[in-house]
């Protein structure tokens, strides 16, 4: 009899435990729903496409990433690659400048589909005919991106002047559309101090595996290890530096030029802004490579040419 009572008591306590677990589960489930009709944090995250998971560092200066671009078969592919990096870098504002008489639908569509409309601007500036590459001209024969970068600099200076000017610390970077960028690079740019030009290594450029600033024991930039035209005042690649915005405001004459020798575009703008020894080394004292000077291979479109002549393009009705 006593044993039967003990068994029933155990069953009673077991049922109480189960009911307690069910009650706790029910309450926690209800907390995930908003009785006022407001969405829960999880539903808001889903509605936002889960993007908040990628916004690891939402603080820091605005980085104006200037990208000259022009119509060609690989344009959308290359801009798509860049857009994915920029989406991961919440303090980057993308300044796209097309070499054209007007903005293209392709670029507008790309900005819209990538969700970057709110932190980008689509500009255009056509390169003068006498400075355009012709036919089979090698890409180094004439300066490229001069008109577009200067257009972007004008826009950035006006934007800064209208929104706080020198009180609002920002950074300007020239982000060509055929390079490869690590999202870590933009975290490094956020460290650039006022009145400074930040520098770091660039991979696969100038005939070397890496072109980089050379530092002394105190971390001061002494020069660069460039193998190609090392006599340049600033023998570095366009991807290897970024500029504190106050320097651009204080030096409105700093821009690019059609009149300089090949390879001197970087030196042309930097000579107005800084000297080598005052540049700010970044990327783990210039030991990390976070950007590569890559180029997309021109696609072989031999089978497309007869289709175009016959008015039967393979991309008819598609945006490739």
From TrEMBL:
Active-site residues, record numbering mapped to chain: 266 (proton donor/acceptor)
Residues annotated as site: Interaction with galactose moiety of substrate glycoprotein: 211
Amino acids binding UDP-alpha-D-glucuronate: 68-70, 99, 144, 149, 176-178, 293-295
UniProt keyword tRNA processing, yes or no: no
Transmembrane segments: 12-28
Keywords: Glycoprotein, Golgi apparatus, Manganese, Membrane, Metal-binding, Signal-anchor, Transferase, Transmembrane, Transmembrane helix
Co-factor requirement: Mn(2+)
Pfam hit, one: Glyco_transf_43
GO biological process: carbohydrate metabolic process; chondroitin sulfate proteoglycan biosynthetic process
EC code: 2.4.1.135
Primary localization: Golgi
Membrane topology of this protein: Single-pass type II membrane protein
Family of this protein: Belongs to the glycosyltransferase 43 family.
GO cellular component: Golgi membrane
Compartments reported by the entry: Golgi apparatus membrane
Protein name from the UniProt record: Galactosylgalactosylxylosylprotein 3-beta-glucuronosyltransferase
Organism lineage: Eukaryota, Metazoa, Ecdysozoa, Arthropoda, Hexapoda
Pathway per the UniProt entry: Protein modification; protein glycosylation
Residues involved in Mn(2+) binding: 178
Gene Ontology terms, MF aspect: galactosylgalactosylxylosylprotein 3-beta-glucuronosyltransferase activity; metal ion binding
Catalytic activity: 3-O-(beta-D-galactosyl-(1->3)-beta-D-galactosyl-(1->4)-beta-D-xylosyl)-L-seryl-[protein] + UDP-alpha-D-glucuronate = 3-O-(beta-D-GlcA-(1->3)-beta-D-Gal-(1->3)-beta-D-Gal-(1->4)-beta-D-Xyl)-L-seryl-[protein] + UDP + H(+)
Native source species: Culex quinquefasciatus
InterPro entries per record: Glyco_trans_43, Nucleotide-diphossugar_trans
